[in-house]
Amino acid sequence: MAGRRRNAFKRVLLKLSGEVLKGTHRYGIDASVLQHMALEIKRAYRSGTEIGIVIGGGNIFRGVSESARTMDRSSADHMGMLATVMNSLALQDALEKIGVPTRVQSAIQMRQIAEPYIRRRAIRHLEKKRVVIFAAGTGNPFFSTDTAAALRGSEINADVLLKATKVDGVYDRDPAQYPNARRYVRLTYQEVIEKQLGIMDLTAITLCMSNNLPILVFDATVCGNIYKAVTGTIIGTFIQG
User: Fold this and answer.
1) How far is CA 56 from CA 47, 114, 169, 183, 203, in A?
2) Is 177 helix (H, G, I), strand (E, B) or coil?
């Protein structure tokens, strides 16, 4: 394994949007996108940085979201958690096929396909240079996968939460609708809350602020960006105290 660059983060929590995996499809997993993301993560992994991952389930859950609208919120949220497990297993398979040792830990126990989430075991896996994918959110309804990422990032003592999206940072308005939208390079947690920028839900932002966990929001679809993020290059928008 290549030596870790001096300016790299020692340990990161990478939050991947499930929407990234669907590519140009309406929902589901695009195999070519999955393979591309696995290769991007492998490059970052070879830098020596310890990597934990939380992945959303929107690419799968969107396919049943119309039916879920009439469901009890708790039941719908549990379906969303199961969607994250499916994405986690798909990413694990893609990573291991290219030689990256990976473990999936689920907040909902399903021992036949994933380890139960145990903080000390997760940290041990990271120390042994295994990528750990945290599935099933927090295991509780009413919490987003962003909140799960903030929680797991805090629990494993990550140096930064890397929020990988399809946009190259945080803007003062929607860049898709407003060509003159301005991208922020740096923000404080308080500015994110006061400006209602909608990067993450309030619970996730507050959790990061309480635990002084910085957030880097960047575009994961650009080749090399995950590597740049884990090796300390400030791309996108950096959020801290």
Assistant:
1) 25, 17, 18, 24, 16
2) coil
Q: Give the structural domain span for 141.
A: 11-239
Whole-model pTM: value is 0.93
Reduce the DSSP state of residue 201 to 3 states and report it.
coil
Q: Is the pLDDT of residue 114 over 60?
A: yes
Mapped to the 3 state alphabet, what secondary structure does 4-39 carry?
Answer: CCCCCCCEEEEEECHHHHCCCCCCCCCHHHHHHHHH
> Which residue has tokens 């492998």?
42
Q: How long a stretch of residues is the chain? A: 241
d(CA 101, CA 234): 27
Distances (CA, A) of 148 to 14, 33, 151, 225, 231: 11, 24, 5, 23, 23
**What is the total count of domains within the chain?**
1
- The mean pLDDT of 93-109, rounded to a whole number, is 98
* Residue 1 placed within a domain: no
- Residue 198: predicted pLDDT: 87
From the number of C-beta atoms within 10 Å of its C-beta (0-12, 13-18, 19+), residue 43 rates as: middle
The mean pLDDT value of the chain amounts to 92
Q: Averaged over 185-195, what is the pLDDT? A: 96
Share of residues in the chain with pLDDT > 70 (%)? 94
